[in-house]
Amino acid sequence: MGSVEPQASVEAKLNSGGQIVVNADSQEVRHEVSREVTDGFHLVIDALKLNGIDTIFGLPGIPITDFARKAQAEGMRVISFRHEQNAGNAAAVAGFLTQKPGICLTVSAPGFLNGLTALTNATTNCFPMILISGSSEREIVDLQQGDYEEMDQLAIAKPLCKAAFRVLHAEDIGVGIARAIRAALSGRPGGVYLDLPAKLFAQTMDAETGRKSLIKVVDPAPQQIPGADAVMRAVDLLKGAKRPLIVLGKGAAYAQADAGIRALIEKTGIPYLPMSMAKGLLPDTHELCASAARSFVLPGADVVMLIGARLNWLLSHGKGKTWGGKTHKDWGGQKFIQIDISPQEADSNVRIDAPLVGDIGSCVSALLAAIESTAGSNWAKPPAEWTGAIAERKNKNVAKMAETLARNPVPMNFHSALAVVRDIIKANPDAILVNEGANALDFTRSIVDMVKPRKRLDVGTWGIMGIGMGFSVAAAIVSGEPVIAIEGDSAFGFSGMEVETLCRYNLPVCVVVLNNNGVYGGTDVNPTGGPDAAPTVFVKGARYDKMMEAFGGVGVHATTPAELRKAMEEALRSKKPTLINAVIDETAGTESGRITSLNPSAKKK
C-alpha cells in the first residue's frame, strides 16, 4: 500500500529507493515500496560465487534439478555426470588441484550415498571437498513417516567426513556455506557434508537482507608457523645424519610450496623419495631422486624426514622388512622428522623424534632459514658413501628397466605399452596423467617419469578403483590441459560410462585401457568346469573403444606399440575425447599387483 507524503520528503524517498507516484488531480505524492526478494536457490549460488567457487560437479534430480539449472543460468559451470560417485571424485580432485573446495551436488538418499564414498575418500586423502545433497523434510524424517527418499543423511555423514552441517533457514545459508568452506580448507583439508532440505530452496527473504547474510571467508587456511625449538630439533637431527632421506607425500604437492621444497633438497643435498602423487615436485630425473632405489634407501636411511607423507600402509607403517626389520613388527631403528599440520599424526606407528607441526610452506621456510643461520654455505651434505651407493643402485635399476622396455613382445605387455606412454608424457610434460588399476597402476608409477608437480593423479591413500573418469573430467575442466588416463580394464569398469560425459563436454582426454581380459589377467578358469566364467575373467577380446565411438568420440583398437603411439599422438593433436583399447598379454601382471602380501590367499601360496 502507498502512503501520502509531503512534497518536501520526495527527494529523501527517491534517494532511499522505491517508486514515486504523483496523483495529478490531488497533487498527492505517494511512495510505493517495491521490495525485491531472493530465495534459497540464489542464496546458495551467490554464497558460492562470493567465495570464488564457479564450478559444480553433480547429477541432477529431485530436489536439486532446479538448483542446477539456476546455477548454470547464473554463470556457474555445472558439469553433470552419469553417477554421483564419479561426480564426487571429480570434486575431490578439483579441490586438490586448486586449493579450493570442490563442490559435488547430489539428490537425496541413494544419490547422497553414492556421493558419500567419494566424500570419505576425499577426507582420507586430505582433499578439500563439499558434498551438497538435497534431503527430505526434517519433521517427516525424524518421525520416520516414510517421505520420498527418507534418510537421516546428516547422521550418516558425520562419522565419515571432516565436518557435517544442515541448513534449515534461508537466512543461515551464508553461515552454512562459510562454515563448510572453512572446515574443508583449514588445518588438514578434507571432505565436508552440507545437508539442504528440499523446502529450504523455495524459502524467500528480502534480497538486500539476504545479500548481507552472505559471508566471504577470509583466510580459511591460515599459516601455522612451527615452533623455533621444533625447527632446531629437526635441523640438529639432519646435521648428525649419515644416511638421510626425504620422503615427499601428496600433502607436499597440495601445499604448492614447490620452490621451497626444491631449495631445501638442493641446499642440503639429501636424496628424496616421492610418493606417487608427489612425483614431479622435482623432476623424477633429478640427480637426488631415489625412486629407482626405493628398496635400498628405505631400510638404509638413518634419518628420514617426511614432508606431507604419512607412515601408513603405503610406507609399511614405518616398520617391517621395508625399513630393515626382521618381521613386519620390527622397527628398523630410523629416526624420523615429520612435517605435518596435524600434531596427532606424530607417533601414529613409530616414534617421531622431531615432529614439526605447521603448514608445509611455513615449515620448509623455517628449516631453510635455520640451516642458513646455523651453517650458511658450510652445510655438510650427506657423505659420498651414501649418495654414491644410491647412485650406483639407481643406475643399475634404470639400465635394467631400459633393457626391459626395449623389448617388443607379441602381444604387448605392460612394459612395452607403457614405454610408449613414458615417451608421450616426456614429450607433453603439461599433460595430466590419471592412473588406476592394480598392475596398470604399479607399472605406470615405476615406468613413467613426471617432471612437473600435480601432474599425476591416482588412487591415493585408500588405493581404491573407480577414480579414473571422475579425476579425468575434473583435471581437464580445472586445468585446461590435456589429460591421459591409463586404466586397467577392471578399474575402467567402475566409471567407464563417464566416457559419455567426456564426449558431452568435448574434453581433451585420452583414455588408454590396458586390456588383458580380466582382473589381474584373463587366465583363471572355473575349477568346477561349469559354464560360468571365473570371477576374475571378463569377456574375451572386449572392444572398449566402441564405447567411446558410440557417444561421438574417437575409438582406436591398438595391438602394437606403434599403433598405440600413433593413436596417442593423434589424440593429443586433435584434443578430442579418445579411448584406445590397448590389447596386452592376458598372462601379464601378477595378482593384486605389488600388494600381493595383502591378499590372504596369496600368503598361503
The CATH architecture designation of the largest domain is: 3-Layer(aba) Sandwich
Beta-strand share of residues: 15-25%
Strand order of the biggest β-sheet? 6-5-7-8-10-9
Number of strands: 22
Structural class: alpha/beta
CATH class of the largest domain: Alpha Beta
Q: Could you state the CATH homologous superfamily of the largest domain? A: Thiamin diphosphate (ThDP)-binding fold, Pyr/PP domains
Mean pLDDT across residues: 92
Can you summarize the main beta sheet? 6 strands, parallel
**Estimated radius of gyration:** 28 Å
Sequence stretches where pLDDT stays below 50 over 5 or more residues:
1-22, 26-34
Distance between the termini: 86 Å
Explain what this protein looks like in three dimensions.
The chain is of the alpha/beta class. It has four domains: 1-34, no CATH class; 38-213, 3-Layer(aba) Sandwich (Rossmann fold); 228-391, Rossmann fold; 407-592, Thiamin diphosphate (ThDP)-binding fold, Pyr/PP domains (Rossmann fold). It has 24 helices and 22 strands. Strands 6-5-7-8-10-9 form a six-stranded parallel sheet, with helices on both faces. Strand 21, helix 23 (561-574) and strand 22 form a beta-alpha-beta unit. Mean pLDDT is 92; it is low at 1-22 and 26-34.
Compact summary:
The chain is α/β, with parallel strands linked by helices and 605 residues long.
How is the topology of this model organized?
Elements (H helix, E strand, L loop, with lengths): L3 E2 L4 H7 L2 E4 L6 E4 L4 E3 H11 L4 E4 L6 H9 L3 E4 L3 H15 L3 E5 L3 H16 L3 E7 L2 H5 L10 H5 L5 E4 L6 H13 L5 E7 H5 L1 E3 H7 L14 H13 L3 E5 L1 H6 L2 H11 L3 E3 L19 H7 L2 E5 L27 E6 L13 E4 L2 H15 L9 H22 L8 H14 L4 E5 L2 H9 L8 E2 L10 H12 L3 E6 H5 L5 H6 L4 E7 L29 H6 L3 E5 L2 H14 L3 E6 L16 H4 L2
Parallel strand pairs: 5-6, 5-7, 7-8, 8-10, 9-10, 12-13, 12-14, 14-15, 15-16, 17-18, 17-19, 19-20, 20-22, 21-22
Antiparallel strand pairs: 1-3, 2-3, 4-11
